[in-house]
TrEMBL record:
PANTHER family: CAP-SPECIFIC MRNA (NUCLEOSIDE-2'-O-)-METHYLTRANSFERASE 1-RELATED, CAP-SPECIFIC MRNA (NUCLEOSIDE-2'-O-)-METHYLTRANSFERASE 2. This is Cap-specific mRNA (nucleoside-2'-O-)-methyltransferase 2. S-adenosyl-L-methionine binds at G153, W172, D239. The keyword Transmembrane helix does not apply. It comes from Chiloscyllium punctatum. Keywords: Coiled coil, Cytoplasm, Methyltransferase, mRNA capping, mRNA processing, Nucleus, S-adenosyl-L-methionine, Transferase. One of its GO terms (molecular function) is methyltransferase cap1 activity.
Amino acid sequence: MEPSKVKKWASRKRPHVEHMLDRSEMSLPIPDEIEKLFNKRFTFQKLADQPWCLAEVGKVSTKESERLQALKESLNDVKNQLSDKELEKWHEHTAFTNRAGKVIPVVRSTMNAELCTQAWCKFHEILCTFPLLPFEALQDGELNSVHLCEAPGAFIASLNHYLKSHRIPCDWNWIANTLNPYHEGNDTGMMIMDDRLIAATLPWWYFGPDNTGDIMAHDCLQGLKELTQNVTVHLVTADGSFDCQDNPGEQEALVSPLHYCETIAALMLLGPKGSFVLKMFTLFERCSVCLLYLLNCCFREVSVFKPGTSKSGNSEVYVVCLEYKGKDAVGRYLDQLGMSFGPDVVQKSDLVRTAVPESFLKQLEECCFFFHKCQTDTIRENLRLFGKMGTEEVKAMEEKRDCAADFYLRQFQLRRLAREDWLVKRSQAGWSLAGRLSAHKKKKLHSGSYNDRMDLAGLAWQERMRKSPLGPEVDQHCTATREANCTLRDSQGGTDCQSWYILEGRRLSRLVSSPFCDVELQRIMEEAVLGCGAARGTVALPCDSCSVYSEELVLSELAALMAEQRPGRFCDHRSQPVDCLVMMRLQQFPTMKLINGFQLRYWKATSLLPTRCTVLHDGELSYQQYLLDAVLHAIEDCRDGGALILPILSSFTRFTAGLLFVLQHCFRALDFVCPTSSDALGTLAVLLCAGFRRPPADVTAFLARLSERVRQLQDCEPDRPLQVLQFVPMELLLRGNLPRFLDVLNTAILKQRLHLLTQSTT
């Protein structure tokens, strides 16, 4: 295509807001209020006679802008009026008063948008409001983008929809980074657990050498630089944030180190004339002032933009930076920023203390005043209408919401996309965590008013748990009854280990999340273990009202499981006893070897079994070594058609889940019983495995190599301790019924453990 035609085509495909509005095509009249909703934008004006450039390192200023600090105090005063509002009711109210509240469902249903979320709609606005895709990239027919802090992937899905629906002829390559939702050491308050797109596109996601996905880790940045060193990156987006609901007044300062790391990464990754989109919040603090000034020095045009589909009452804005001047524009600052890169970048970097021109500061104050007024006006309106909306006001609000949805579709020229053009072309039902885990995953972590949450924070963990939605469930006494409908039946496919690989990463210091368990249960469990002195070996008292599985009951449940696999044969008194391997001599198991139709054989562990639960649970290296040796011995020593009894501490980690994946493919059925002990910090569950089928020899060989590697890592250098985090690909672990089985198993163990700890401290 000739350059002149490309330029004409590109301008047509990337329309600006001011050129797109055609009232004659609107099905509803557009009030000024709706037009203003989608036009919250401030663009910095650079003066030719007063160019902005980075000062020499050493010219510092620690002076805060009094006007910006006054705006911060004013905004917090307005926000403080929300402190006594019950969170769920307030969210329900503001969701209704949100003029753009109908945009998402309308876009999802009419445009067949993939992963259509609020982030999807916000990014589509940005794409259609700014010339974000460099002309040179479109001219060359190649677009390379990097998406930081991207979970769940809505920016990527939105960009794909834009490119495909507008038939933009370019070869698009993307790579994304985010906190790994599968890493057991990542705090759930810092990340998004939604993996709908991640699970189906894992090869395109980079989690760094330590597998955490932490963009504030220098090794992660270095890895991204190496991955992109042979291509020109045209676009970087950074949508990072974390939960600040317990300290909303300091959101800007709390998130600023992340913003700096995202910006430094963008400046190092982008090619000349590239674009950068950075989510920020209020811009009152000195760290934000200096960051905005840095961006204005490095890009030809910088705008602060509040998409209409971003809730008007929050502080979220997007800084849109066009035409990167290249690394030379940053000069020595880039090296200095690189050296201070990390969680302490705001404290270490001289940039945060650099002097900024008065001409820039004046424009930034004007920008902040504009967005401050927009936000406070919305909050005050919501306060005025809270619980007081009459019929006419409700009707008028519905009309505005309909009008905003209609305006969005036409203003931003949305087009329907065929399913075959999605990133995930076929349904991945059963692959992602979002659709697999049980209903209690959906419980809100935040409820009640801000004042209520602060009061709860001052209570002991037992009281907080009792007042939480989990309280009644944990208080229930356990009966020796097997969980219904959770048996893992014959797996689909064989035990082909060709796709398996040993994934190593930073050794776990605490286990705070799991793809296979409710995160709130885990959070309370961590507090309970620490609070009860588990690390010091404190023994919790048993609960006399709970039933514990005896040896007869365990074998009875195993017999029932075997009978389901061998109808009419197992209970026949003339049949031969079934070989049953018991992987340790439990205290309650008898020394006799023939009982209830089973020929019992005991395995004496070659590695030491940890006897107490710690904050690492099954992430403890010594426990993983023990369990791996037990599984390896079982598949070598079990007899065809036989059974296995294997005590299990928990299955929170991908490593343990991988071992259960192996067992699932070696036995016709898996189930568990809980509790098998009254020791709150001991092993509370036993796996029951029925109908052994010997796996191929390469599976045994792989597990032997894995065992050797785990042993080696236990003795690795103390300055860089590593751990095997995973060996079965996550795509396989998320298939079928295994995730639900693990969730039910872990939930039963955690609830009983919490119940026993609560009883002993009452």
